[in-house]
C-alpha cells in the first residue's frame, strides 16, 4: 500500500477560493471602463459626421447593465444646422444640413417661426398650401448613433477596449500567482 501525505498552505487555498469573486469584479470593472469609453467614442464619432455637439449625444446616452441605450426623439432641424438662424428683414431662402459633409441645401418653402423657449424653429408649409405648417425634423440621436459606419467602429473599439481592460484588471489581481508567489 502506498500512502500520500501532504500539507497545504491554507493562505494560498483561501486566496484561490476568492478568485471567483475577484474575477467577477475584474470583469465588472472592465465592462464599466468600456461603457464609459463607448459613450465618449459615440459622441466623438457622431459629432464628427453630423451637425450635433458631443454634449447633445452624451446627454442622450444612458448606461445600462446590458450596454448603452440611446434615447432621443426626432430633433428639429435647428438642433443641426440652419441658415439664417433668425428671420432676416428680407426674403432669404432657408438652408439646412444634417451631415457635415453634405453642405447646406435649400429647404424649399420653409420659414422660421418663434419657439416657446426663445429662438426660432424651421417649419414648412404643405405642398398644396392648405393645412398647418409642419416642423422640419432631422434624424434622432439614436438614429445617428445607429448609423452602420458608426456602429461598426464602435463595435470594434468596444471589443478591443474590453479585452485590454479585462487583461489589465486580471493581471492586477495576481490570480495566476499570489503575491509573493506559490510556496
> How many helices?
4
Largest sheet: 3 strands, antiparallel
Mean residue pLDDT: 80
What are the low-pLDDT stretches, counting only 5+ consecutive residues below 50?
A: 1-8
Outline, from the CA principal axes?
elongated
Number of E strands: 10
Give an account of the 3D structure:
The chain is α+β, with helices and mostly antiparallel strands and 183 residues long. It has two domains: 17-71 and 141-173; 75-138, no CATH class. It is built from four helices and ten strands; from the N terminus they run ααββββββββββαα. It has helices at 10-49, 54-60, 141-145, 148-173, and strands spanning 61-64, 67-70, 75-76, 81-83, 95-97, 105-106, 110-114, 120-124, 134-135, 137-138. The strands form four sheets. Strands 4-5-6 form a three-stranded antiparallel sheet, with no helix packed on it. It has a three-stranded antiparallel sheet with strand order 7-8-9, with no helix packed on it. A hairpin with a 5-residue loop joins β7 and β8 (120-124). α1 (10-49) runs antiparallel to α4. The longest helix has 40 residues, at 10-49. It is elongated, with a radius of gyration of 28 Å. Residues 1-8 have low confidence and may be disordered.
Amino acid at each position: 500500500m502506498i500512502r500520500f501525505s501532504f500539507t497545504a498552505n491554507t493562505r494560498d487555498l483561501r486566496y484561490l477560493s476568492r478568485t471567483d469573486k475577484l474575477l467577477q469584479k475584474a470583469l465588472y470593472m472592465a465592462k464599466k471602463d468600456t461603457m464609459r469609453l463607448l459613450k465618449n467614442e459615440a459622441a466623438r464619432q457622431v459629432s464628427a459626421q453630423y451637425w450635433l455637439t458631443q454634449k447633445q449625444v452624451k446627454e442622450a446616452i444612458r448606461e445600462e447593465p446590458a450596454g448603452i441605450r440611446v434615447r432621443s426623439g426626432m430633433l428639429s432641424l435647428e438642433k443641426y444646422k440652419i441658415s439664417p438662424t433668425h428671420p432676416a428683414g428680407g426674403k432669404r431662402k432657408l438652408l439646412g444640413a444634417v451631415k457635415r459633409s453634405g453642405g447646406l441645401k435649400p429647404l424649399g418653402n420653409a420659414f422660421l417661426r418663434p419657439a416657446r423657449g426663445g429662438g426660432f424653429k424651421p417649419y414648412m408649409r404643405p405642398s398644396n398650401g392648405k393645412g398647418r405648417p409642419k416642423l422640419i425634423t432631422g434624424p434622432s440621436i439614436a438614429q445617428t448613433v445607429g448609423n452602420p459606419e458608426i456602429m461598426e467602429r464602435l463595435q470594434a473599439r468596444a471589443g478591443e477596449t474590453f479585452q485590454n481592460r479585462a487583461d489589465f484588471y486580471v493581471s492586477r489581481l495576481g490570480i495566476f500567482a499570489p503575491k509573493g508567489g506559490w510556496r
